[in-house]
Amino acid sequence: MGNYFVRMPDSGSVAQVMGLMRPLEPTAQAKRAGARPKPPRQSKVQPTLLVGALDDTEARALERSGARIYDDSEFEPFPGSSAREIWDSAPDPTAPAATLSLDDVLHHIRAPDAWSRSRGAGVTVAIVDTGICGQLLEFPAAKRSSIDLPTAFAGQHWEDTDGHGSMCATIAAATKADNGRFDGVAPDATVLSARTTLMASDVYNIYDELITLRLNGAIGSLVISNSYGLYTCEPSGMPQDHPYLEIVLSAISNGIPVVFAAGNNHYDVACNHDPTECSPNTIWAVNSHDQVISVGTVNADNSNRDPATPHVNSSRGPGEWAVSLPKPDCVAPTYGEVVWGCDYRVMDWWGTSGACPQVAGLAALILAINPLLNARQVADIIRNSCRDIGAPSTCVGRGLIDCASAVEAAAAVA
Amino acid sequence: MFLRFASMAERDEFIENARREEPQVLSRIRVSKTQPNVVTVRSASPSETRLLARMANGKAKVYEDAQLDTFRP
Fold first, then answer.
1. Chain A residues inside the 8 Å CB shell of B63
2. What is the pLDDT of residues B1-23, one digit of tens each?
């Protein structure tokens, strides 16, 4: 007998499973402190999530019937915080971090609410990154672009020895359709893996190929997701006539929305600025240009100024090269379980790397519903549909992305 | 590294010089399809960069490559 978290595949048999569950047994330490068994509980905000005691046979039987089972864990308070404060900051008091996942993040940004109107069909999302694991069920053959870019990793784009690119691709456009664990923001979009050495010259060549394919009609609507940039605390020194910027702007002028991660530079990953402040600027070079969409990240409480979570590293604006559209443009939440390489990993945050592909997926939802929009219009819709989360713009831009509102706005544009 | 030439003729002259004088670099040279006055050279060492910049004979603006990194968790 043990305490379990059970996520049911749907609400149909929730009552039956609740009837099966016994009271939660407190730990030995909690018993000594006077704690008594508590009745099984159904989450209020995630009604298919149940918490209670089961014997191992019952737990495995539920798993075989499609439920996801999580062992209970005993958490220690972080140094300097009380356990109460940590639970108060969680999105659901009954859900430990291990039970949160990309599914929860998608609900947080209202992606499922947008899917009745658009799931990204007909749009290709290019993931310029470390490659994508070819064994992931989230990317069945029919979902993969057949294009093999003749760049540094020609013939090896669907391999990922690092893990990062697979995470980004999953967040943008994974699908559960072929037994994958996760959907991404745009589950019906096509994914083009553009594995790169991350040298600017290789990225340049990838863009050059993508623009050519777009112009000759080999690719229709296209979005490019870029979760990389410069780790620096000083101005980048990159000249603004650099061909790398020129090719990115060329993509945008040819109708391709280009989305960049803002960076992870603000606090202890790089620059050690005050985690509660929204300055100084730490978004650099191409990632800070007016015409790209630059994305920061927040935690489950929509904050990147809480020193208890690593989201304080999200780079601050207004952006080295921004003139009229200060950065970041918007933020997206990152927390919980997600793909990493060919496997799954629970992480406190996914870096701004994990925020960027959410917006790339959203751009795909928008283009799927209105393919005539240009890159500037797509960016405007994303910015204008953000939810105000009450923080300075150099921390969160226009706010939290809202997929349902953005898709509705895209449908309304003639 | 990147080289941006003012004209296609100057670009072609550079590539011809590279073919003659540094043939081992040729396989790493790529002419842009969408910006044909731009040439990239993959994995150019600092000494190669200096050599190729000299070979361009002042007819190209030369840009250093940049190592980017993922904004990972």
1. 239, 242-244
2. 999 999 999 999 999 999 999 99
CA dist A71 and A2 (Å) reads 8
Predicted TM-score (pTM) of this structure: 0.80
* pLDDT of residue A315 exceeding 70: yes
CB contacts, 8 Å: A334 with chain B: 73
Query: How high is the pLDDT of residue A78?
Result: 30
Residue A401 has pLDDT above 90, yes or no: yes
Instruction: Say which residue the tokens 């489950």 belong to.
Output: A300
Cβ B42–A201 below 8 Å, yes or no?
yes
B34–A208 CB contact, under 8 Å: yes
The mean pLDDT value of chain A amounts to 89
- Whether residue A40 is predicted with pLDDT greater than 90 in this model: the reply is no
Reported residue count of chain A is: 414
Kindly list the residues from chain B whose CB atom is less than 8 angstroms away from the CB atom of residue A164: 70, 72
Cite the beta strand spans of A258-388 per DSSP E: 258-261, 293-298, 330-333, 336-340, 343-347
Determine whether the interchain pair A353/B71 forms a contact, defined as Cβ–Cβ distance below 8 Å.
Answer: yes
Q: In whole angstroms, give the CA distance from residue A307 to residue A319.
A: 23
Give yes or no for a contact between A384 and A325, defined as CB atoms under 8 angstroms apart: no
